[in-house]
């Protein structure tokens, strides 16, 4: 069974940091671009960061640029999202998906998400 599993979410104070992990199982993610996306109720999914197959292409949304860092370790079949200087508006369910150039990412290669709450 192929799947992505996200971890690392939680409650953090404004200005704090979290590191999200996206582990693939049942397939190799080295063939795919991978994106991190976030969902907020009653809002459209937002693409947060995208990384190319070999990590040589990276793109961030304007809202997280300079604060978030995406990386990948193909040997560990895992993609990461380091989130620093977190803001209350970063609160969302974060999920990873293959094909970051598709709106919302691939529907076939997508995790369930991990909740990030930024609050004092």
Short description:
The protein is built from no helices and ten strands. The chain has 120 residues and is mainly β. The N and C termini lie far apart (39 Å).
Specify the oligomeric state: single chain
Biggest pleated sheet: 6 strands, mixed
Helix content: under 10%
Relative strand content: over 45%
Question: Which structural class best describes the helix and strand composition?
Answer: mainly beta
Form type: globular
Q: Number of helical segments?
A: 0
The average pLDDT score comes to: 95
Distance between the termini: 39 Å
How would the blueprint of this fold be written?
Blueprint: E1 3-7, E2 10-12, E3 18-25, E4 34-39, E5 46-51, E6 58-60, E7 68-73, E8 78-83, E9 92-98, E10 114-118
Parallel strand pairs: 2-10
Antiparallel strand pairs: 1-3, 3-8, 4-5, 4-9, 5-6, 7-8, 9-10
Features:
single chain, 4-stranded antiparallel sheet, mainly beta
How would you describe this structure to a colleague?
It is a single chain. This protein is mainly beta. Helices cover 0% and strands 46% of the residues. The protein has strands at 3-7, 10-12, 18-25, 34-39, 46-51, 58-60, 68-73, 78-83, 92-98, 114-118.
């Amino acid at each position: 069974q192929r799947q992505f599993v996200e971890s690392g979410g939680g409650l953090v104070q404004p200005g704090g940091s979290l590191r999200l992990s996206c582990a693939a199982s049942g397939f190799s993610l080295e063939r795919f671009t991978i994106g991190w996306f976030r969902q907020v109720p009653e809002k459209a999914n937002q693409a947060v960061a995208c990384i190319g197959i070999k990590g040589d292409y990276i793109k961030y949304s304007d809202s997280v640029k300079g604060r978030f860092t995406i990386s990948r370790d193909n040997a560990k079949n895992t993609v990461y999202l380091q989130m620093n200087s977190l803001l209350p508006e970063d609160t969302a369910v974060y999920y990873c998906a293959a094909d970051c150039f598709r709106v919302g990412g691939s529907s076939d290669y997508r995790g369930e998400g991990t909740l990030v709450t930024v609050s004092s």
